[in-house]
Amino acid sequence: MASALYPLFKQKLLSQVDAIDFDADTVRCIFVTSTYVYSALHDFFADLTNTIGDGGTGRANGEVLVSPTLTDGVLDAADTVFAAVTGAAVNAIVLYKDSGVDATSPLIAYIDGISFTPNGGQVTIQWDAGAAKIFAL
């Protein structure tokens, strides 16, 4: 599966209804294992399976994007550090807005190409230094 923006996120951008404010909202990222299958029908954190975060698997175990910037339709942020990651082999990372509830925390992006087997140690995500950064619209 290639990286993709979740369709509900794109709809929010176009309709400006319940839009996500990267400067004010809590946007997090969390790993998913190879057993998670991306679906365009997934729209909230509750739809994710087999997540791996910092010390656990739930929504609150995702790491917050620090210092997000939006420039010319490109999202970037400071490197994201997970202090202790354990679990099955990681296949991708998912960005989501944390509303405090799994069923209302909208998914933003599925980013493929992140592959490693956690060993309980720290994992740092260095967002792409190229033109696309985290993602570009």
Q: What level of helicity do the residues show?
A: under 10%
Order of helices and strands: EHEEEEEEEEEE
Q: Based on CA inertia axes, which overall geometry fits?
A: globular
Structural class: mainly beta
Number of alpha- plus pi-helical segments: 1
Low-confidence stretches: none
- Oligomer, anyone? single chain
Question: What's the main sheet like?
Answer: 6 strands, antiparallel
Mean pLDDT: 90
Radius of gyration: 14 Å
Considering the chains and any ligands shown, give keywords for the structure.
about 140 residues, mainly beta, 6-stranded antiparallel beta sheet, 3-stranded antiparallel beta sheet, 11 strands, globular
Protein architecture, described:
With 137 residues, the chain is mainly β. 7% of the residues lie in helices and 33% in strands. It contains one helix and eleven strands, in the order E-H-E-E-E-E-E-E-E-E-E-E. The strands form three sheets. Strands 1, 2, 3, 4, 8 and 9 form a six-stranded antiparallel β-sheet that branches. The longest helix has 9 residues. The chain is globular, with a radius of gyration of 14 Å. 27% of the residues are buried. The mean pLDDT is 90.
Quick structural summary:
The chain has one helix at 7-15, and strands at residues 4-5, 27-33, 51-52, 63-64, 69-71, 74-76, 80-82, 90-97, 107-116, 123-125, 135-136. With 137 residues, the protein is mostly beta strands. The strands form 3 sheets. Strands 1, 2, 3, 4, 8 and 9 form a 6-stranded antiparallel beta sheet that branches. The protein has a 3-stranded antiparallel beta sheet with strand order 5-6-11, with no helix packed on it. A two-stranded antiparallel ribbon has the order 7-10.
